[in-house]
Amino acid sequence: MLDPYRCLICGETYLGQEIPDRCPFCGASFRHFVPAAEWIDYGKVEMSEQSYKDIKAAIDLELNNSAFYKCAAGKAETQITQSIFKRLSKQEMEHAELLCKMIGEDEPPLPDVTCSDSDPENMLDAHKRESRAIKFYQEAANRAPEPRVAEVFRALSEIESEHLKISSVYR
Ligand SMILES: [Fe+2]
Ligand SMILES: [Fe+2]
Fold first, then answer.
1. How far is C-alpha 125 from the geometric centre of its chain's CA atoms?
2. 2, 14, 16, 166: which has the fewest C-beta neighbours closer than 10 Å?
3. Nearest ligand by distance to the CA of 27
4. Cβ neighbours, 10 Å, residue 68
5. pTM for the whole structure
6. CA separation (Å) from 57 to 23, 54, 127, 156?
7. Environment class of residue 21 by beta-carbon count within 10 Å: exposed (0-12), middle (13-18) or buried (19+)?
8. CA of 118 to the centre of ligand 1 (A)
9. pLDDT digit string, tens, across residues 18-31
């Protein structure tokens, strides 16, 4: 019988027989998957002013990176780099959506972001962007008093570490 799994980070459902290694939607580790019946809807989260400020900064960061990866996908030199940039853009967009849900606000539009015509240069840019994101999420997770906010920041830090590895391999 098909037993769908649901991601506790982004809330998306995976329709498959076995838990995938990472959430195809947000990139979270398989450890965040639960059978759909056990899924918890955190919805809008009550939070401190500092956490709200951090979530707003995180939304900007995610939208900026999503727009950058979209640009890089549009200019990609190979089918492989195009597919990677496209997936990364979608995962960052998923992160922005999740963060907006946590504060109960509408998602702002994608900003205008430029990128290079060269894959290696865009991979280098990606590397810098992901390094900044990891550092920010680690700091934000450490100062978040709310368990759910800390959990999400920690998961995002771990996901961006995976993105960093990807940008290192193809650089
Ligand atoms: Fe997910
Ligand atoms: Fe992200």
1. 17
2. 2
3. 1
4. 23
5. 0.95
6. 24, 5, 19, 13
7. exposed
8. 30
9. 889 999 999 999 99
Q: Tell me which DSSP letter residue 8 carries.
A: T
Dump pLDDT digits (tens) for 115-143: 999 999 999 999 999 999 999 999 999 99
Residue type, 83: S
Q: Which pLDDT does position 16 carry in this prediction?
A: 85
Ligand 1 centre distance from Cα of residue 155 (Å):
10
- For 28, the 3-state DSSP assignment is coil
Both structure tokens of 125: 């840019």
What is the end-to-end Cα distance of the chain in Å, rounded?
Answer: 42
Contact 5, 13 (CB under 8 A): yes
Residue 61 Cα to ligand 2 midpoint, Å, equals 8
> What are the Cα distances from residue 36, in Å, to 11, 17, 31, 109?
10, 13, 14, 31
Query: What SS3 state is found at 34?
Result: strand
Band of residue 84 on the pLDDT scale cut at 50, 70, 90: very high
- Coil, strand, or helix at residue 49? helix
Residue 94 CA, chain-centre distance (Å), reads 6
CATH class, range 49-169: mainly alpha
